[in-house]
Design brief:
The protein is built from 5 helices and 7 strands; from the N terminus they run βαβαβαβαβαββ. The chain is an alpha/beta fold and about 180 residues long.
């Protein structure tokens, strides 16, 4: 059986443990996870203390998840651009999933995360805090009020009513079960 391979990149920030936890959580759902934890450094950084930090954080994370004997975990400290090294490692190990963090305010369309998503050879899970998210567009306050007053039945205000083609269809009462092809899911 082929192991499920997860690549996660940690940047030595205060959010590294959160990103690692998400990666280990996905690995724990597999029978034979193969976890690769990566930190990318520049040419001026001594890799020895970074490697010790990475080993410690990964060991602590694995203890919290009670990793079994079928888990395989490797740490990687590489030099270069983070987005290049993350996608390169994912391709090298034939990863099934990349888990990376994206916190705080970032440049739109030009962050390392955007480059990883664009160039990744597998699905990428981006972990972030919603209170730090930058809204892509300002919402029309009148549209927000219409949605609230209609309990989601109407989506847009009069000024944006040409978009009413997106009006929600009639509600379907919930039966408590989902069926597919005559069977219950």
């Amino acid at each position: 059986m082929r192991p499920y391979r997860v690549v996660t990149a940690l940047d030595h920030s205060e959010y590294s443990e959160i990103v690692l936890e998400h990666a280990l959580d996905h690995a724990a759902r597999q029978q034979a996870p193969d976890v690769h934890v990566l930190t990318v450094i520049d040419g001026r950084t001594d890799p020895a203390p970074v490697s010790r930090w990475l080993t410690t954080i990964v060991r602590d994370g694995l203890e919290n998840f009670r990793a079994g004997p079928n888990w395989r975990t490797r740490i990687h400290v590489r030099q270069g651009r983070p987005d290049d090294e993350i996608t390169r490692l994912a391709m090298e190990v034939d990863a099934d999933l990349i888990v990376i963090g994206h916190y705080g305010l970032h440049r739109r369309g030009n962050s390392p995360v955007d480059h990883v998503i664009t160039n990744a050879s597998c699905p990428t899970l981006v972990i972030g805090l919603t209170e730090h998210a930058i809204p892509s567009d300002e919402q029309c306050l009148a549209c927000v009020a219409v949605r609230a007053e209609s309990e989601g039945e109407r989506l847009f205000c009069v000024a944006h009513s040409d978009l009413e083609r997106l009006h929600l269809s009639d509600r379907v009462p919930w039966s408590g079960t989902l069926t597919r092809g005559g069977g219950v899911w």
